[in-house]
Amino acid sequence: MRILNSFIFIVLYVQSGLLFAAADTIFLGGPIVTVNAKNEEVQALAVQNGKIVAVGSETDIKKKWLAQDTRVVDLHGQTLMPGFVEPHVHIVLTSMVEGLWLDLSNFTLPYDTVETISQKLKMQLKTLPAGGWLAGFGVDPSRTSPFMDELNADILDKVSTDVPIFIINQSGHIAYVNHKALALAGVTDQTPNPPGGGIYVKDAQGKLTGKLIEPPTYLPFQAKMPAPTEAELVQAMQKTTRKMAAKGITTSAEITLGANLGLENELKLFKGLTASEGLPIRIRAYLYGPAIPQGFNALAPNDGDDRLRFVGVKFLSDGSTQGLTAALNEPYVYPIGTKERGELDYKDEELFNLIKPYFDQGWQISIHANGSRAIDQTLSNYSKLLAGNAHPESRRLRIEHFTINTSDQVKKAKLLGVVPGFTIGHVDYWGEAFHDHIVGSDRADRIDPSASFKKEGARFTYHSDSPVSPYGPLRYISQGATRLWQLPPQKVLGAGERVSVDDAIRAVTIDAAYQMMSDDKIGSLEIGKLADFVILDKNPRKTEPEQIANIKVNETWVDGKKQNW
After folding, report:
1. Which domains, from first to last, does the chain contain?
2. Mind listing the pLDDT tens digit for each residue in 7-25?
3. pTM here?
């Protein structure tokens, strides 16, 4: 009888709400932006064992979750919101650019010139070890003075004829080499162009210029370049991911796993770093299709855990808009009178045959499509993949960039459940170039069509495509809400495509999580989700849109733990 009475007492005690497992941490004292379906702001939030267990009023949460050992974090007026989700970054390449190569990227004014770029290369020569290559990233003819002034083998030979030089354009789709590099790589005037859209550019006399178009042309050069050590790569990746965390990013895609060092090498690198807790952020990895070896079966869709998960396969269908290699339906407007409209990397049936086996295995498919012709091709192939599927949105097919587009393409994407990701820095860093020089005002105004997707009731996301543009989601929010271009006099690029700050926030939180098949775990502050937060010195919802980029990230938390940068 005594045991029965004790049992009844415990049941009543639990039902009365007096028995509870105390929260590890409670946050209060500042606005808490949940980004839930109602965009609610609340007073307090409780965390237990790395997950959110309560969101609501300070009084209720203290009453139900506060105990003697609970840590109380007073925000002192700071804003707590979901950790930012960055759905498109080349983490390995960014780490190499930031830690191992010469970073020539220039996102400030004034623009560089070929002469200033050459001087930077000459300075880097002094630091090279014997037998090394001068490798760099970030030259951008569309942000060079004069407009579209470009490197070539002859210019690079003036830097050095003895040291091989390999420089990737800011877009990632073009590279420049000197004659020494061409010789070491064994690329001659007679070398055929590689499949997958690669072009070894030649002059009117059929001589190599030193310009390479599309990543397949890089392979002979990368094969001869000294490989970084594992220790160098680990250090570089830790440095880059800490910098990402310092920008408030708690989850990021690696959008081309295997593209730089081979799939097996990069897979080993990420698994090792995750197992040793060497990365401060979560990773959602997309295998780079051309890098997948024949018969590869070491991974299945959704393998991994909450820290490192493998969710998709990525392919390219065209090049870069600012590099004039994206595949458009109508010609570029630069140079005046040109009939050039870019090239597709694959024929329609070739692309379909590449993606279908992975789609059938259950992988999420991601295709880079900058130009309108590439978007048409991608949507057509997606239609064939989804034929007969009553719920196409369940596959969450991705189009990366969706840059030069039409209203019909937006509608078709919505019908197919496609989630586009916009390199929103296009409107900032390249807005004037697109508008005045590259595609003209009508097409430029539609770049990154956020409001058009919003009008259709469809999701979209923002990303950096780093190292193509700088990572920093607060800046993306500002760029999406203002659409101001950088070059004075500043103008708005396509005012009709501006969205509200709330919509822009969703593009870097819950909708980005949805795009990466992770919205059940991250992207909003709701009960049961992982305790990933960012603490800001100001509330972006109460800040002028053009000032949001200047908000300071004070702290980043993952799994309910403050991360060290």
Report:
1. 2-77 (2.30.40.10), 85-89+229-521 (3.20.20.140), 101-222 (3.10.310.70)
2. 443 333 343 344 558 999 9
3. 0.95
